[in-house]
Amino acid sequence: MRYRYYDGFEFEADSVREIAEKLWQSKFIPEPTIEEWMVGIAKREKMWNGDVLRTSSVEDLVADMFATGRITALE
Question: What mean pLDDT is predicted for residues 16-37?
Fold first, then answer.
């Protein structure tokens, strides 16, 4: 399926884990682990937009990103 991140980045992914990995690796300098990326993005979203993203699992984080409109499905 095809998705769009709020900054206009479009990508394809077949699973929730792949969505997170694509976003993590799309950074100019990605954090060393996906877990560190999850904590970092949750912190930035809280600071910039007031959005609370759960970091307990990749599934929770991605679900929250859909709920806040950070990710939208294109198909």
Answer: 94
